């Protein structure tokens, strides 16, 4: 039996209707063959045989190897490299506005659309596809705006609240307030030895960063305007943010809140739809409603297994930073220097902020005004998926930049 969400000063607004995860296997799971279709097991007679559906949402898995598409009839899971439709569930009862994968394992978090007669948008379903059953359900008094998964945690985002649960027994571990967050903004680190969470703070332009392993909370004032989008590196050490103006993207050290770099998407206001950081923190990609994906060259030195230098004593990326609000020299990689596309770089100490912000290194132009989200693929490739049901894989020149070359294009869902 599901319990209504209590007021904020009470315990977790959750019930687990079908057992807990100690009785389930969380493991890598080979999904059914491409095109396989079935209903969720609680609705065996509820199969929708139609291939026509509306696209409600898109989301990457944690390593950008797959993406999930929530549709008006259910959801689809796609592999990126090579592109392949690997898994789907179709229902007559309605679709899912949130589909969150846990890497490539059998566990998914699902939130229904308003038209879903079985799963309303105030309920989170934790689904074990290997056993074809629901392992737990979270029910809240208000609409769920976002869900994030780690191998050990579930994070549920409401408009003014965030709840953190233990994945194995579904117990509430943390909860805290945010300012109004209708976009469901939240991101996590995914390295097993760090647990960092970023979410809106309680004031405009502020991001709250929780370093749970260190028991440290950092409030970072990232913009003067409302925050529209942000992301972190896999280890949670770097944070990239954009405001509702959409002209600047800023990169911060999450440990001390210092600003490390600022890049400029353009001069006109725009809606930033997504930001991605490459695994080695050398590149940043951003998509906007202007129909262009921009790639920026980051100058923050990060040591780790994906970088050129491999210190023996380090177990993961370590940020080299001196606590100074003005000196950028200790953070600038000696082999990159200033943005090569800026002929004004030699004057950066004397120009206003507009000119000293660095412009994009590479770009790719997309058709129309569709919302696109971006991620980094293998080597110097960028993956782009759009709400028009399109998938692009592009490659950029790491030396000269400029226009990216389209390598793959797939129409994965007809609208």
TrEMBL record:
SUPFAM superfamilies named among the record's database cross-references: WD40 repeat-like
GO cellular component labels: phagophore assembly site membrane
Gene: LOC101499902
Topology versus the membrane: Peripheral membrane protein
PANTHER family named among the record's database cross-references: WD-REPEAT PROTEIN INTERACTING WITH PHOSPHOINOSIDES WIPI -RELATED
Bias type Low complexity, positions: 1-17
Subcellular location: Preautophagosomal structure membrane
Region (Disordered): 1-22
Listed name of the protein: Autophagy-related protein 18d-like
Main subcellular localisation: membrane
Span of the signal peptide: none
Similarity annotation: Belongs to the WD repeat PROPPIN family.
This protein's UniProt keywords: Repeat, WD repeat
Coiled-coil residues: none
InterPro entries: PROPPIN, WD40/YVTN_repeat-like_dom_sf, WD40_repeat_dom_sf, WD40_rpt
